[in-house]
């Protein structure tokens, strides 16, 4: 396998997924930091449909979308550790829960934390709370989602561990607490001790500063 290049953005949970997967497999890669307000011609060329990061380019061939890229990494570099489970049923469940995070939970974060409308915010927070309860029940009694080792769903759901606490600190809206979601917090404690997560997670103070500015800008636009 030849040159591997990742087009990413600092502070993006989607970029982090890809880099964690590459680090788990011991794959050497070059990263290209993208300015999402001024995207490079290369990024637009490699991902002309969605025009988003991350994009991984292997020997000049682009692969887009973080979940797709993670599967490609696992299938291409076949040695241990495996990211997806080996059994077809377990693989299907891993894909299901990853889609749950991306299609259900992630879209609820913005209305829950960024809305200044009291009624809308309360409704969105309740819906986010319900989704976290589903995740709490799924991880209960487990070390990681796939068993005793970090895997596909854990990497995808790292947004719960890293980004939700960040947004809570920035907005003062508390949704995820150890008292209410003890199983998620037990899993989070295990996940944050994994060296591959420690190496790739963004600094929390810097992340909070980034989102503080981002939220202020977004709120200013909505009140213009």
Automatic annotation (TrEMBL):
A molecular function (GO) term: glutathione transferase activity
Enzymatic class: transferase
**CC annotations in GO:** cytoplasm
Annotated keywords: Transferase
Catalyzes what?
RX + glutathione = an S-substituted glutathione + a halide anion + H(+)
What the entry lists under InterPro entries is as follows: Glutathione-S-Trfase_C-like (IPR010987), Glutathione-S-Trfase_C_sf (IPR036282), Glutathione_S-Trfase (IPR040079), Glutathione_S-Trfase_N (IPR004045), GST_C (IPR004046), GST_C_Tau (IPR045074), Omega/Tau-like (IPR045073), Thioredoxin-like_sf (IPR036249)
Q: Could you tell me which Pfam families the record lists for this protein?
A: GST_C, GST_N
Q: Where is the GST C-terminal domain?
A: 87-210
Where does the record place the GST N-terminal domain? 2-81
Cite the EC number: 2.5.1.18
Keyword Repeat in the entry? The reply is no
Q: Which domain of life is it from?
A: Eukaryota
Task: Give the GO biological process terms.
Answer: glutathione metabolic process
Does the record's keyword annotation contain Transferase? Answer: yes
Family in the record: Belongs to the GST superfamily.
Q: What is this protein called?
A: glutathione transferase
